[in-house]
Amino acid sequence: MTKFYVSTRNNNIDVSASEAVLLGLSDDGGLFVPKDINSIKIDINELIELDYKEICKIILNKFLPDFTEEQIKYSVDNAYDEKFNHKEITPLKKVGEDFFLELFHGKTLAFKDVALSILPYLMKESKENCKLNKEILILTATSGDTGKAALEGFKDVEGISIIVFYPEGGVSKIQELQMKTQEGKNTYVYAIEGNFDDAQNMVKQIFNDNDVREKLYSNNVALSSANSINIGRLIPQIVYYFSSYIKLVKEKEINLGDKINYTVPTGNFGNILAGYIAKTIGLPVNKLICAANENNVLTDFIKTGEYNIQRDFIKTISPSMDILISSNLERLIYFMSGGNSSYIKNIMEELKTNKKYKVDSSIKNQIKDLFWSDFSTEEETLSSLKNLYQKYGYIVDTHTAVAYDVYNKYKEKTKDKSKTVILSTASPFKFIESVYLAIESKKIDTDKDLIRKFSKKYNLNIPKELSNIEEKKKYHDEILSIDKVEGRIIQISEKIRG
């Protein structure tokens, strides 16, 4: 198989696309990236008459060269079916003069569904391509949405089991209910004592622990990941950037070739990195607007070139963005350094040791040319959500409200009138308490009728996925301290082995 991917921290570590999908993370702790991203090109002129699935097949063909066309067709057709409640998969909605790309029409009501509906199929085909006869155990840390989307995607998939870790008290009530009530004989969910960064670091450490890997191998189990550190999670996210652009052309909002902006609520940097890759391979992008909440480490980085995690971790009403260590930023810096893996290794070591690093002026200038960033306070997020509802009757979740607020700041500060797509990353039903607080300026009673009250108040249909969720049996109620995680993983691998 063609060795298409390399590690961001060592160009000499090269793997095929199938191997990259299965491994998730390189042995040296680096992330897999295409050897030559600039050799991958998409001609948007050829996409103008295509639907979402057809665009997806073209993009996957470019990034998964060891997959056959039949394997890609099988994966796409099975991923994007009735699991999505909208025929366009990711519909684009015009609200006033703004455009919201609704990425929450999948089974778990969040943008993670788009990639995590297809990842199980990509992983299954990768396993076949690599002739891997081991059981796969997926470890995933979640700040809220990845967990449920991954659990749902991999539920009862033969030969694959999944463990999800989420920060206790660090997700919304609905997000937690979605995970705790997850069915499936191969699914495991644990709250952990700590925040998302603690969970993510713990997962990465286990991936790089040779002793743990050997114990799992002795149980005929291999590790993989469903986080956006896995290139198989990232590639499908490129698709909706292209499909939204084509939609604007078809609706005569722009001419083919016009550059547009994308505003992205950003935490782990995967979603906005997909936008960067889309631009690199041929999408006409003017600015990528990185919207942060009060954990604004990315805003500071984009403005100054210094990434500094020596700051307080703040729990906000946009919890999926409560992240200080944005894993996918490593990939961006790798691309902008011209593929200098030694440089990446050094700054990642610096981050680990000194809790900060500063990129050189060339990279800093490249980032400032393409990216713009600001953050939204809690008060601004609530106000933004309320204003959008009062003006247009359109209700968004708190993360999308962050993006809307930051986009308005961008317009005010830059006077840029380019058409802009705002990525709407979750259904408002997932953050009922905060959405209600924003609109009504008071708290909603959090009893068992919470979802029905919210639906009736705003005349919104309850998504079928949330029907009776408050009455469902809870299968996953355990809280683990970080030091107990490794032992539990070994225990589960023994159960998988039988």
Please characterize this protein's 3D structure.
The protein contains 20 helices and 16 strands. It is α/β, with parallel strands linked by helices and 498 residues long. It has a domain at 92-108 and 232-433: Rossmann fold (3-Layer(aba) Sandwich). It has a six-stranded mixed β-sheet, sandwiched between helices. Helix 2 packs across helix 10. The chain is globular, with a radius of gyration of 21 Å.
Write the layout of secondary structure elements.
Layout: E1 5-7, E2 10-15, H1 17-23, E3 32-34, H2 52-63, H3 69-79, E4 92-95, E5 98-102, H4 112-116, H5 119-129, E6 135-141, H6 145-154, E7 160-167, H7 173-180, E8 187-192, H8 196-207, H9 210-218, E9 221-225, H10 231-250, E10 260-265, H11 270-280, E11 285-292, H12 297-304, E12 306-308, H13 329-336, H14 341-354, E13 356-358, H15 361-370, E14 371-375, H16 378-392, H17 398-414, E15 420-424, H18 432-440, H19 450-458, E16 479-480, H20 482-497
Parallel strand pairs: 5-15, 6-7, 6-9, 7-8, 8-16, 10-11, 10-15, 11-14
Antiparallel strand pairs: 1-2, 1-3, 4-5, 12-13
Helix pairs in contact: 1-5, 2-3, 2-10, 3-5, 10-11, 16-17, 16-18
Give a short synopsis of this structure.
By secondary structure, the chain is of the alpha/beta class.
List the strand order in the largest sheet: 4-5-15-10-11-14
Name of the CATH architecture of one domain: 3-Layer(aba) Sandwich
SS content category = alpha/beta
Alpha plus pi helix count: 20
Rounded to the nearest angstrom, the distance between the terminal CA atoms is: 32 Å
Q: Report the principal-axis shape.
A: globular
Q: What is the helix fraction of residues, given as a range? A: 40-55%
Average of the residue pLDDT scores: 95
Give the radius of gyration.
Answer: 21 Å
Classify the beta-strand content into a percent band.
15-25%
CATH class type of one domain: Alpha Beta
**What is the number of strand segments?**
16
- Poorly predicted regions: none
Query: Could you give a short account of the major beta sheet?
Result: 6 strands, mixed
